[in-house]
Amino acid sequence: MGREALCTARVGSETEEVNALLESTTVVLRGAIKRKWEIAALQNLRVDGEELRFEIGEEAVALVLGEKEAGKWLKKLQTPPPTLAAKLGVSADNPALLIGPTVGTLDPALAEALAGGITTNLREARMLVAVLSQASELPRMAEFHADMICKTVWVVHPKGPDADPSDAVVRIAMRGWGYVDNKTSAVSAALTATRWVRSEPPPPKKRVRNR
User: Residue 60: CB partners within 8 Å, gap ≥ 6?
Assistant: First the structure.
C-alpha cells in the first residue's frame, strides 16, 4: 500500500509523535510508541475529523493524519488486497502453462491462484509459470519456454538465505538469456515469484540445455 506519515498518535492512554506506516498487510508505528498491527485485525475503522480511528484488542487508536490523508488511509485499509491470481495476471482469458515442481507437491496458494487459468496448449498459453526446485532446472525451463509463443515467464522458487535457486542465481541466468524482470510477488511463506519477459530472440537450445 505504501503510505507513511509523521503524526500524533493516541494508543490507549499514550499520546506521542510517531512515524506511521501503512504497509501491505500491517500498520506500523515507530518512534516513541512502537506497534505493529495486522490490518485484518483492525476493528471499527473510521475517520473522525482529522483522525483515523480504530480499535485493536483492548486498545483504542487515533492517528492525527489530517482529514484528507485520513480519508486516503481509510480507503486503502478498506480495499481488499489483490488476489495472487490477480498479481500473476492468470485467468481463464489469460491462461498459463505450468511446469514443476519436480520435488514435492504444488504450493496450495499457487494451486488456488492457478485453478481457473491453466492450459496445456503451448500456443494458447499467455505465460509460462515455472516452479523450480533447484538451480539445475533453470536451463530446462529456458529451453521449454523457447518453444512457446508467449514472451512472459513467472519463475517461482524458494525464498530465504539458503534458497536454491537463489534470487541472484535466477537473475544472472535469466538476464544472460535475454530476459528482463519487471515484477515480483510473494507466493507464500516459502515461495517468491518474479516475472520475466524475453526481450531478445530465444537463445539456441545448445546454450541452455541441462547437462
Answer: 10, 11, 12, 53
